[in-house]
Specification:
279 residues, mainly alpha, 13 helices, globular
């Protein structure tokens, strides 16, 4: 039975309005990044009178954006690798084995998502400072300390999500792997992980995006040498002026890795929970 024309037109109008609503901020950013500073500071014009790519060159000179970019890439990459690695082993243990405290562990992991991240800011700051004073290990103001900070709120979600993915993989596949001579780790890496690729990719994307765009902890836990992009963008605002065109240009440049990664991995994100589990 064909849908009525009124429904089809309503759907088209709704999707068109939704597309305009989503793309409008992107257009404002792109157009503002291609304007001279004096044009951006004046009344906004939907159609730029003059275009220039100079802001895309100036962003690297106004602030050390390349250093901030490298810091963000190292921190976000390390946080993603650590989060996914730990979550895979933890989720596999919870999904496949029964042990004392298993339910308490899963409930505790889930309950950590109920607290706002700002509650952990002061405790982590004091812990890092005290560790540095007692052992000489400089976690405060270091990339390693920022990676550990991001693990406090990306790792619980990663574990909980992967538990559901691993539970969806039939246990018969584990038994078949053991019959073929695989141990627990062999079954994990040869059977469970390939079957849970969509979940692992989703966890990796979540961990990377969380670390890449986080501002609060990065503004407190870093110094001039370890500052990340999310904090470094504030450098385009000075006491004398705000370089709006450079802020827009830098924001677009900063967004490129996340957008490119999402486009490359989107086919995994939309794959079924057990895609490829049974051949």
């Amino acid at each position: 039975m064909a849908a009525p024309q009124s429904f089809l037109w309503s759907r088209r109008i709704f999707l068109t309005l939704l597309t305009v609503f989503v793309l409008l901020p992107v257009y404002v950013m792109v157009s503002s990044s291609l304007k001279p500073l004096e044009d951006v500071s004046e009344k906004f014009a939907w159609i730029p009178s003059g275009l220039t790519v100079r802001p895309y060159f100036d962003i690297w000179e106004t602030v050390p954006l390349a250093d901030y970019f490298m810091n963000s890439l190292i921190v976000a990459g390390a946080a993603t690798v650590c989060s996914v690695t730990i979550a895979v082993f933890a989720a596999y243990a919870v999904s496949r084995y029964s042990f004392r405290g298993r339910r308490v562990f899963t409930v505790t992991v889930l309950s950590t998502q109920m607290f706002p991240g700002i509650l952990f800011l002061l405790p982590l700051f004091l812990i890092y400072v005290n560790i540095g004073n007692a052992t000489g290990i400089a976690l405060f103001g270091s990339r390693a300390g920022l990676v550990l900070t991001y693990l406090t709120f990306s790792l619980p979600f990663s574990i909980w999500m992967l538990i559901g993915y691993f539970d969806s993989v039939p246990r018969d596949l584990d038994e078949a792997a053991k019959v073929d001579g695989c141990g627990p780790l062999g079954a994990l890496f040869r059977v469970i992980v390939p079957a849970a690729i969509p979940g692992i990719v989703a966890v990796a994307v979540y961990a990377f995006m969380t670390a890449w765009g986080e501002v609060l902890f990065a503004s407190v836990m870093t110094d001039d040498t370890t500052r990340t992009l999310a904090v470094g963008l504030q450098g385009y605002s000075t006491q004398n002026d705000v370089y709006w065109n450079q802020i827009m240009a830098a924001s677009l440049v900063v967004s490129l890795p996340v957008v490119a990664g999402f486009l490359l991995l989107q086919r995994y994100l939309v794959t079924g929970l057990t895609a490829g589990a049974v051949k």
